[in-house]
Amino acid sequence: MSNNEAAASNFIRQIIDEDLKSGRNAGRVATRFPPEPNGYLHLGHAKSICLNFGIAQDYGGTCNLRFDDTNPEKENVEYIEAIKEDVRWLGYRWTELFFASDYFEPLYGFAEDLIRAGKAYVCDLGAEQMRDYRGTLTEAGRDSPFRERSVEENLDLFRRMRAGEFEDGARVLRAKIDMASPNINLRDPTLYRIRRGAVHHQTGEAWPIYPMYDYTHTLSDALEGITHSLCTLEFEDHRPLYNWFLENLDVPAQPRQYEFGRLNLEYTVLSKRKLTELVAEGHVQGWDDPRMPTIAAIRRRGYPPEAVQDFCDRIGVTKSDGMVEMALLENSVREALDATAPRAMAVLNPLKVVIENYPEGQVEEAVAANHPKDEAMGSRLIPFTREVYIDRNDFMEVAPNNKYKRLALGGEVRLRNAYVIRCDRAIKNEAGDVVELRCSYDPATLGANPEGRKVKGVIHWVSASHGVPAEVRLYDRLFTVPNPGAVRDHDWRDDLNPESLIILQAVVEPMLSGASAGASFQFEREGYFCVDSRDSAPERLVFNRTITLRDTWAKLSARS
């Protein structure tokens, strides 16, 4: 998709264009990405990162990274550092780094301003009582019995809340708006709650009270001079409250909130709760398990950051939620890796081949291009010897039909970048399984076609004496259905793919022994793989399959 096509599908850019044309914000564009550091970011967050940072980049504006750290019991420094790494990996740099906790003092001051204006009060209702008083979507709420406390009493109680006098849950500070509003978010929402025992990762034990998200988010935007506050669609009903804070407080800027559809992706889940359960219940091996949709996981799996950016451009930014095909993401990954990944040969299911008429002890070096479309990547030498491994799937005792292009008894095939061989015998074990092939080669076929006969197939191989053992992890989609758990009375976990990870003991060509962590390659005829950044070591290579060469799921879908 071109930049123009991507821009056309992004209504936010159209709004910004109009704002710049009208002179709003004096021509400034300032965005922010405000994650809560209570977990690892996933592909839905990647969409928001690309949107916020991409807009700032394209319009010559600014984009802050701000941690919404108002819930100390669930937040920690590990998540903060992971989020920073995710943003950097996607190719972006923040203008300023902020924490919502940086604003705790001015936020407290604004709360006192609301109390003095008669627009906030301290409420002693418990959580269940407050829910009862709030009403329902069809029934108006009721005023709290503490709603008409005097300004003096509210200031006194609020200051004592800050001083740590009261137990958790004893009191909250609420905005005084409209308990009969059809928008429940405006029915005297909570602004502050007491958390005396919490130790905050930035402020320690300095604050026994913490501001709520809606209040903090709005005023942080205003204090930072944000012009376009971009949120996912679930915050649309919160926008009137966002605007209420701006209208009722003397803030230095007047940002505007805009909502866009969140990402829903086939064959996975993007719910933080469900992702947490996958980790906690042992269905995956941590937050960076390459089957997970977290940014840490796809990075470890070998997804290039430019592929994620391209995917976000392709899906655009819309005003409604929708399900995006996994194939769209995978196509972006394939296109990026096809252009950049060097080629290599790896035999995932080794079957030994002994070329009986090849001289024992002789080693030749086959020349192979590192990339068929990019001469600048150069070439490499691959040792060729009397004994090689081919993939077990490339042999059948009897060819099933005339279209078969692999090796069969009495048949010929070319070893890629090397010779044509003919299979003469198959050695079997006591169980009748083929364990070794005895073949012969045609010395005249190195870089040339054999005279008088046509060889249909080309297969990959690795020298048995020079090949390097490696563990290969074949990762696949985490779920077997596009929308896990969509069937009524059906647990979403029942849709987990039992073959989402298959581990093989493979043999790879020797040049891969020096590959660095995270390096990507196309294993010819197999797919794209990368060196695992956590488990791989020079003495124990581990490769993760990033993606297959083509969409195998499309065939499965067509059959079902």
Could you characterize the architecture of this molecule?
The chain has 560 residues and is α/β, with parallel strands linked by helices. The protein is elongated. It contains 14 helices and 29 strands. Strands 12-27-28-29-25-26-13 form a seven-stranded mixed beta sheet, with helices on one face. The chain has a seven-stranded mixed beta sheet with strand order 23-20-21-22-14-17-24, with no helix packed on it.
Which SSEs are present, and which pair or pack?
Blueprint: H1 3-8, H2 11-22, E1 30-33, H3 43-58, E2 62-67, H4 77-89, E3 97-99, H5 104-116, E4 120-123, H6 127-134, H7 151-162, E5 172-175, E6 190-194, E7 209-211, H8 213-224, E8 228-232, H9 239-248, E9 256-260, E10 263-265, H10 272-280, H11 295-301, H12 305-315, E11 322-324, H13 326-340, E12 343-344, E13 346-347, E14 350-355, E15 364-369, E16 379-384, E17 387-391, E18 395-396, E19 407-408, E20 412-415, E21 420-428, E22 434-442, E23 458-459, E24 462-463, E25 468-475, E26 501-508, E27 520-523, E28 527-531, E29 541-547, H14 552-559
Parallel strand pairs: 1-2, 2-3, 8-9, 10-11, 12-27, 14-22, 18-19, 20-23, 25-29
Antiparallel strand pairs: 4-5, 5-6, 6-7, 13-26, 14-17, 15-16, 17-24, 20-21, 21-22, 25-26, 27-28, 28-29
